[in-house]
Design brief:
Layout: E1 14-15, E2 31-32, H1 35-44, E3 59-63, H2 73-89, E4 97-101, E5 110-115, E6 121-125, H3 132-147, H4 154-157, H5 160-171, H6 176-186, H7 193-228, E7 232-233, E8 236-247, E9 260-267, E10 273-280, H8 284-291, H9 312-322, H10 324-328, E11 330-337, H11 341-350, E12 358-361, H12 363-381, H13 384-388, H14 391-410, H15 415-430, H16 453-456, H17 459-473, H18 476-479, H19 486-498, H20 511-525, H21 529-538
Parallel strand pairs: 3-4, 8-11, 11-12
Antiparallel strand pairs: 1-2, 4-5, 5-6, 7-8, 8-9, 9-10
Helix pairs in contact: 3-7, 5-7, 7-20, 7-21, 9-11, 12-14, 12-17, 14-15, 15-17, 19-20, 20-21
């Protein structure tokens, strides 16, 4: 006898009134077993003993392996209910059902329920079939045009959970090894590397298409703002941009051998991405075929650069400036960059409106280089330098420098005033306040007496510090507005996440391009970039996580 007193009302087993078979109607009215139903059945000799799972219903589950699966629970249960309806309506409710697993379905759970009496079959998938009008077209075009591989079955690609798994692992910066390790811990069989690569290419292709639309929309917004603010010169509206580049390998200041590089152009007013460029000087298929002295197979080659790695950033930014008029009907007449003078020189020489371009230098990069210069002075000269230029003093010198740039910008941005503030900095830090302005608390010629650093300071040390300051004073015109490339640096941090850090080389084939496109979408669209990009690509929204 089945006892259900402890179960909530909605969790009691639904059965037919006589507990023998379901109604013949498409939607049988089911009742809930209670004490009175059990008593009636006992009096009439009917049995409500369900026994072991699947036993009383005559369902053979031996064809299903004991493994974990990814399924949509509501969809799976509704499919099994349909199968049980058939069982109760076939041969007076005495038919036997057998459940078999379909092999080689990757992460997509696929089963077949077979009625062993009448031969009825029902195919059950672990998730509902999406509105595949758009999806099927997209995947078919992708398989034929991009992969060029007729042997690859569309059924292996069209499983939503497979695409989502690759989409998700790429969004976290992982690859096949990361997905394999995660699924192995969960006890779920992974797809093979070839299928993963094909799906990675599919996802990357979707991201690239979506990014193209995003950049176009960002350009329209920048142009609209330029028109509103009447920024018009040389028959074109113009804007100020922030530029920077990043390599897929750390150079450590001397090892410029990276195989890939990304460069970005961001509107300084709207803070939106206007251009993303990638340079890749390596293709695995081309290299391996050449090494083996074999003919290179037909493939989509992403190698688009053969110059020195150090010039990749310059090449990308020059191309971005050249395309500004065609892409966005804008000219980039002002740009904020780091201390790389070669970029500015190339822009002046290679862009049609190059003679009108003006540069502002990133104050954070200048401060960083000043700090590096001071540490290098201590390292090379040693002796008294290490005593008077301790880490604490270097920190105070760099803070003073950065504060001077900020103060000058707040006071109106005069280049001459900035030079005066910068030249007073070393004297102030070492204790001489005679030249300080009224904002200094130790003004009026009073020397600092706590450590009396200034009186005992060797002249050569002060000269070395001032020499570094003088180099920065030469750039006062470029620093007077306290501009920074922080937006571009934020983008680079997102890009590093998508490519899995600079310790992994993603530039051998298409993976680097795909992940940079994903990083660009994440930067442009924010936390909801995943759902919005998926919906734009496949025509429906992914499942919501509650």
């Amino acid at each position: 006898m089945l006892e259900q007193e402890s179960l909530p009302e909605q969790e009691k087993f639904p059965v037919s009134p006589n507990c023998s078979r379901l109604s013949e109607t498409p939607n049988p009215a089911l009742t809930i077993i209670d004490d009175s139903t059990v008593s009636k059945n006992a009096a009439s000799g009917s049995s409500c003993d369900f026994g072991s799972p699947g036993e009383s219903f005559g369902i053979d589950l031996s064809g299903i392996p004991d493994v974990n699966c990814i399924v949509n629970l509501r969809h799976l249960l509704s499919e099994f209910i349909e199968a049980i309806k058939h069982q109760f309506n076939c041969k007076d409710g005495k038919s036997k059902l057998r459940v078999k697993e379909i092999k080689n379905t990757v992460l997509q759970t696929k089963l077949v329920i077979i009625c062993q009496d009448c031969g009825w079959k029902k195919r059950v998938e672990g998730e509902p079939e999406a509105p595949l009008t758009t999806v099927k077209e997209y995947l078919t075009n992708f398989s034929e045009q991009i992969l060029g591989n007729k042997k690859e079955k569309i059924s292996n690609l069209r499983g939503n959970v497979n695409v989502k798994a690759v989409w998700g692992i790429m969004g976290t910066g992982g690859g096949y090894a990361s997905l394999n390790e995660l699924l192995s811990v969960l006890g779920i069989k992974n797809m093979n590397p070839k299928t993963f690569m094909n799906l990675e290419r599919l996802v990357g292709n979707a991201w690239m298409d979506a990014l193209s639309d995003v950049l176009e929309e960002n350009g329209r917004e920048s142009l609209k703002l330029a028109i509103h603010e009447d920024r018009f010169i040389n028959d074109f509206f113009w804007t100020k941009v922030i530029c920077d580049g990043g390599w897929n390998k750390r150079s450590k200041g001397h090892d410029y051998t990276a195989k890939g590089c990304v460069g970005v152009i961001i509107d300084a007013f709207t803070k939106k991405l206007l251009y993303v460029g990638i340079r890749n000087k390596y293709c695995y298929l081309c290299f391996s075929s050449k090494k083996a002295n074999q003919k290179v197979k037909d493939h989509v080659c992403f190698m688009n650069y053969n110059g020195p790695s150090k010039s990749m950033e310059t090449d990308i930014l020059v191309e971005g400036f050249r395309q500004s008029e065609a892409m966005h009907n804008l000219q980039y007449l002002q740009y904020i960059g780091d201390g790389d003078s070669s970029v500015f020189y190339k822009l002046r020489q290679s862009v049609s409106y190059g003679s009108y371009i003006q540069k502002e230098e990133c104050a954070n990069h200048v401060t960083k280089n000043y700090t590096k210069y001071l540490h290098n002075v201590v390292k090379t000269k040693k002796g008294m330098h290490s005593k008077f230029l301790s880490n604490d003093i270097i920190l105070k010198l760099t803070k003073n420098l950065r504060g001077a740039i900020k103060k000058n910008s707040a006071d109106g941005g005069s280049a001459e005033n900035l030079r005066q503030l910068l030249r007073r900095g070393p004297e102030h830090v070492f204790g001489n306040h005679k030249e300080c302005d009224s904002g200094c608390a130790k003004k009026n010629g009073v020397l600092e007496t706590v450590e009396n650093r200034y009186n005992n300071l060797p002249k050569t040390i002060l000269e070395d510090v001032k020499a570094g300051v003088e180099n920065i004073c030469k750039k006062a015109d470029l620093l007077r507005n306290d501009a920074t490339t922080n937006l571009a640096e934020n983008y680079m941090s997102v890009a590093v996440k998508f490519v899995g850090g600079k310790q992994i080389s993603r530039s051998k084939r298409w993976s680097y391009h795909a992940r940079i496109s994903g990083a660009s979408l994440s930067y442009s669209l924010g936390p909801k970039w995943q759902s919005s990009t998926w919906k734009k690509t496949f025509g429906y929204s992914p499942c919501k996580i509650r």
